[in-house]
Specification:
alpha/beta; Rossmann fold; 2 domains; four-stranded parallel β-sheet; 10 strands; binds D-glutamic acid
Length: 269
């Protein structure tokens, strides 16, 4: 098998990274994807950088063993803590979600006052601030951890009063600073976007890094001559979970926007 027909590996702490798979499918329709969701060890958000790095290394080892030609880290927390390490650790190209999200935000902002929301780990890492300041050193970044959003999304509470109340509280410092752009710095938040758009001040743009990450994956594959040759029919993806594949099957469709036929179980660590 030539290198370009090898699959693209995508991983996340759980199911949320399927929002990135959805965009890769749209922008790179011939790519075969192996998706690994670490459902046994989710959430990564509250875990230490060292732990998230260890998990990320184990998943990267497994994906490379399966013959992937590139790895997309769809998890914001894993990108924030482990991207530089992974880029040194494996020989295939590694694409994360933070830089693409920061780029999309800076393309959109007019005031250079930008909000970032994410898990506790992502926000504590300062990864978004660094990525934004690398583009525009004078930008003002208001970052806020929103740890209650992930469980609310997993429960499917996308448009409930309780979720709106929590969101108002989380977004208050961003509204006070008058951000004109908010980066949804977590795999789960795009599902809250319709509700967040109603709560944010009029005109505030919400940035979902999935589309920009897929675009970066496409650029990387083109640069390295790794784009899959066109195939007849949709390529067969593999979905792998480290625990509870049935839950993945049920909830995954909400994130992927399409049915999933089968989920394999692989235990790591
Ligand atoms: N995938 C994580 C992220 O994007 C959210 C879920 C978790 O905390 O593991 O940061």
């Amino acid at each position: 098998m030539s290198e370009s027909s090898a699959p693209v590996g995508v991983f996340d702490s759980g199911i949320g990274g399927l929002t990135v798979v959805r965009e890769i499918e749209r922008q790179l329709p011939h790519e075969r994807i192996i998706y690994f969701g670490d459902t046994a060890r989710v959430p990564y958000g509250p875990k230490s950088p060292e732990t998230v790095q260890r998990y990320s290394r184990e998943i990267a080892d497994w994906l490379v063993g399966e013959g992937v030609k590139a790895i997309v880290v769809a998890c914001n927390t894993a990108t924030a803590h482990a991207l530089p390490m992974l880029r040194e650790y494996v020989t295939v190209p590694v694409i994360g979600v933070v830089e693409p999200g920061a780029r999309a935000a800076m393309r959109n902002t007019i005031s250079n006052v930008v909000g970032v929301i994410g898990t506790a780990g992502t926000i504590a890492s300062g990864a978004y601030e660094r990525a934004i300041h690398a583009i525009e050193p004078r930008a003002m970044v208001i970052a806020r951890a929103c740890p209650l959003f992930v469980p609310l999304v997993e429960e499917g509470w996308l448009d409930r009063d309780a979720t709106r109340l929590i969101a108002r509280e989380y977004l208050e410092p961003l509204a006070e600073a008058q951000v004109d752009t908010i980066v949804l710095g977590c795999t789960h938040y795009p599902l809250l976007a319709p509700m967040l758009a109603k709560i944010a001040r009029p005109g505030v743009q919400l940035i979902d890094s999935a589309a920009e990450t897929a675009a970066e994956t496409r650029r990387t594959l083109i640069q390295r001559n790794l784009v899959a040759p066109s195939s007849n029919g949709a390529p067969a993806h593999r979905f792998v979970a480290s625990d509870d594949p049935d839950h993945f099957l049920r909830v995954g469709q909400r994130f992927l926007g399409a049915a999933i036929d089968r989920v394999e179980k692989v235990t790591l660590g």
